[in-house]
Structure prediction request, 297 residues.
Amino acid sequence: MSTETSGTPKSPIVPTQLGLDDKFRFRCHKGIACFNKCCENIDIMLTPYDILRLKNRFGITSREFIDTYTVDFTMDGHGMPGLKLKTREGSTACINLTPEGCGVYPDRPAACRYYALGLVSMRRKDSPIEEDSYFVVREDHCLGHNEPQLQTVRDYRKEQGVDIYDEINHEWRQIILKKRSSGPTVGRPSQRSFELFFLASYDIDGFRAFVASSGFNDVFDIEPSFKHELMQDEAKLLKFGFRLLKQVLFGEKTIALKPDAAHKRIERYAQRQAASLAGRAEELAAAHDKLYESLGE
Ligand code: SF4
Ligand code: SF4
Prediction:
C-alpha cells in the first residue's frame, strides 16, 4: 500500500480519472485470500488529522506518537518536513498490523481508508481552487478488484469515513499544493518557518502549548472565547494552525496582530537574553521565542 501517485512505467494506477459519481469494482473483506497483504509493504504519508486520531487512540502525546510511530522524510526540494507511518523493525509491514488485521482500524490513516483509490488534487493555472480526481490503484497482490461489488466513489468515501479527514486536512493540502506549485519562485522558507510547519501540522500538543503561551498572546489579537475553544477542540486548533501557516508562509493575513506586536517581541527577546536559561521549561520558552521571530518575517 502506497500513498505515492507519481507515474512510473510500472505504476499500478489505472489511468482513468474518476469523479464522485463514477463507479468502480472493488471489495475488501476479512475472508479474502489476500487479507493483510496490502499492509505488509507500506509507504504511507501521514496527514495532521491522521496523527491527531492515532495519538488519541493510543492515549499518548503527539510528540510520543511522532517518536514511536513515524519516520521523517522531506516533501520537496526545499526540505518541507513530512512524516510517514513506521514499519516493523527489519520489515516493510506496517507497525500497526496484527494477525487479525489492522490494529487501529477505527482510526486508520486517510491513505488506508482511500485504498484502492488514489486521490489527486490539482489546481489549474488560471483557477484559484483545486479539483480532486480519483484513480483506481490496482496492485497485483490485491484480489479485491476481482470481487463483483460495484460502487460509486462517493459511496466508497462514505463507507470508509474519509470525509472528516478531508474536511479537516483541506487547508493543509492547499498549503502543500501551493508550496509545490509556486516552486522556487517563492524561495526556500526559513528554518523557523519549517519548525512552525512541523509544530502546527504534526505536534498538536506542542502547538497547543505554543498558542497558550504569553509570547503568542503578545503577538496575536485573538478573542479570549475563541482561544478557549482552541484549547478545548483539537480539530479547531489544527485548522487554526493551518491559517497561521498560510499567514507565515504566504502572507495571507487572517489572524490579527496586536498593534505593538513587534515591540513586544523585541522586549520579550531582550528579557530572555538577560535571563539565565536552565531546564526544559526554559528551553521550550526559548524555542517558542525563535518561532515568534519567524511570525514577523
Ligand atoms: S494503519 Fe492499519 S490499514 Fe493502514 S497500513 Fe497499517 S495496518 Fe494497514
Ligand atoms: S483486498 Fe486488497 S485492500 Fe483488501 S486486504 Fe486484500 S490486498 Fe488489502
Notes: The chain has a mean pLDDT of 87. The pocket of iron/sulfur cluster (ligand 2) is lined by residues 28, 32, 34-35, 37-38, 115-116, 141-144 (CB under 6 Å). The first helix runs from residue 48 to 58. The radius of gyration is 21 Å.
